[in-house]
Structures are given as C-alpha cells and as structure tokens.
Amino acid sequence: MEHSGGEAKALWWGSAGLVLGVTGTSVVVAGAEHGGRLSVALVLVLAQVPALRRLVRAPVAVLAATTAAGVAVWALLPAVTLTGALLAAQIALCVLSATGPRRVSAGALAAMCLLAPLGWVAGGPAGLTVYLLTVVLAWTAGQWRRAHGARIRAETRRAVTEERARIAREVHDVVAHTLSVMVVQAAAADDVFAERPDQARQALRAIETGARSALGELRLLLRAFGPGAQEGEDQHEDQYENENEGEDSAGARRRTPSLARLDELAEAVRAAGMTVHVCREGAVDGLPAAVDLAAYRIVQEALTNALRHAAGADEVRVRVAADGTGVRVTVVDNGRKRQGGSGSSGAGRGLVGMRERARLVGGSLRAGPLPGGGFEVVALLPAEGVS
C-alpha cells in the first residue's frame, strides 16, 4: 500500500501527538516523585517522535526502536502501564500490518506477544489481558486497512477495464460503420467514374461527409475519455473541418449520437446503395441519454452488419417505437437465406457490442436469421431507472 507525502505527514503528526499526549502525560504523572528517572523517561519518549517520521518508509525499524524505548520507559517507571509505554510500538505494528508483507507483520505480532509476561508482572491477569488485547487489535486494524485498500484498488482496476471496453465499443461503432459505408461508396464511384461522373462525384461527396461526421464523433470521444486529448486535436482542427472556430456547445450536441440523428444515419447507408425505411412511433425526446445513445448505436451496428454481411440485401427496415416505459428498436434486412439456415453474419464483435449496450442500460437484445430470409435485430431498452 502506497502513501502520498501528505498522508505520511498526517500520520506522523497524529502518531506523535498521540504518543506525546498519552505516553508523555503518563510518564510525567508516574515520575513526579522520581526526578532522575523522569528526565530519562521523558527523553526516551521524545526520542520516539523523530523515529515515527519514518513510520511509512521503515515500519520494521521504527517498531524495533519504539519497542526498545517503550520497554526502557516501563523499566524506569513501572507505574506506567506496559500498554501505555509501548503505544508508539503498537502504532508501528498497525502500520506494518497495513503496508508490509503479512508474514513479516505476523512475526512482529508474535515478537510483541513475547513481552506479555511483563504485562503480568506489572498488572497481573488484567495487565496481561489488556496488553495482549491492544497488541492484537493494533495488528487487526492494520489488516483491515490493508484489505480495504486492496478492495479499493480492485474496484479501480475494474472501473478502468470497463471504461476501456466502453471506449473500444464507441471507437468500433464510429469507425466500423463509417468505413464500411465509405468502402461501398468508393467502389460505386470507381464503377461509374467514366460513364456517370456526376454520380461518382455524389459518392465522393458522401464519403467526405461521412468522414467529417466520424471525425466529429471521434473528437467527442476524445473530449470525454482523454483529459489531454482536446489539446492534441485542437492543433489539427482547421485541417479537417470547415467550421467556425467559435462553434458553441449546441453544435457539439448536434454531433452527439442520438436517435434524433437517425435520418442522417439512414441517409449515409442509402448513399451506399441500400434502401433504408425508417419508421418512428412515439417521441424519443424524453429518453435518458444512456438509452438514447444505446439505441442509436444498436441501429448503427445493425445497419453496418446489413451493409457488410447480409448476402444480397438491398433493403433495410428500421422501426423505433417509444412509449413512457422505454423504446423498442427493430432492424430487419432482406438478405438471402443462406445454406444451413444461417442469415446475416456479424455475430462477432458487432453483435456482442449490441448485446452489451442493451445490458448496460437494463435492456435485452435478440438477433438472428428469419425463416424466409433476412436478419432481424430487436432491442428492448427501458427508460425507467436509467440515468
């Protein structure tokens, strides 16, 4: 377990204050009638304060030094309980238990328990019990702190992994869909370049529009996921976009993936030569942002799969039905039925990503070939209980 400089300094101040306040006061009270011994005992107590400064870096050495000093204080002034005299050592044991290897801290615990007979000498059964109890509690508190830190690190690693997976899905959705459309459009432009130059120019303009749209979405991803991404992308903004430098946040929201941009998505696929029918039922304006984004990405991936994998498909129907409880998204293509009963493929990362998106917002998704040919994707995404 690592400690920052501020945490180490706070630990030192707290430990030093506790030792001076508890052990120092006990020594002053117990040694009031022992002038010479009192002076030596106070020096031993004060000597533990600078030692505690290295508590985080060298807990074993600090434990050894404070144990020796504590036993010496108790030997000089037996009226000071062994538990009070070894307070600094118990703090060091707690820190060692929290930060050091378990076998080392367990050995240190056993070594401190060997001093238990001194507790018997000083206070009988009660003194022995109190000493053992405080030592074991100090070690146990360190173990709890260790487990707590491990749990936090595990949660952090899991959050980072989930965030990386989400970024990968976003990049995949943006790049795969746009490149698929661009490849089809480029092939079409090449086929008609000589005979129908106007149609070839139209395809090239569609490629340019799709590329700009993809760049805009990738910029949004960089803003959201990379604290330093904005600086890098701003250096090249004029190189890729003919937009005003003072574009406001409303312009950024217009580029944000949403069911409100469904017509743009369909138009890009139409430009690639496929007929796309879009049917809307109900209003999608009130959907939670997470559901809106998930629905958009599911439609995008389904259209990409139809464009890339549906054998013989030239028509896709998209139906989005929203009500107060959620939204139902249906995408069906008319691809030919394959031998063996399999329809459109796309059963790799694309379908996995769609199912994961639906699951993350509490919904469900089913996808598969239809008996008469074609491939159907149906997603049910609830709008309630989603932020």
Which key features would you list for this structure?
66% helix, 387 residues, single chain, five-stranded mixed β-sheet, rod-shaped, alpha+beta
How would you portray this structure in words?
The chain has 387 residues and is an alpha+beta fold. It is built from 14 helices and five strands. It has helices at residues 5-30, 35-52, 59-76, 82-85, 87-99, 102-113, 116-191, 197-225, 229-234, 237-240, 249-255, 262-271, 289-309, 349-360, and strands spanning 275-281, 315-322, 326-333, 364-369, 375-382. Strands 1-2-3-5-4 form a five-stranded mixed sheet, with helices on one face. Helix 13 links the parallel strand 1 and strand 2 (315-322). The protein is rod-shaped and about 110 Å long.
The rounded Rg comes to 35 Å
Range of helix content: 55-70%
Number of helices: 14
Order of helices and strands: HHHHHHHHHHHHEHEEHEE
Largest sheet: spatial strand order: 1-2-3-5-4
Structural class: alpha+beta
Number of strands: 5
Give me a quick take on this structure:
With 387 residues, the protein is of the alpha+beta class.
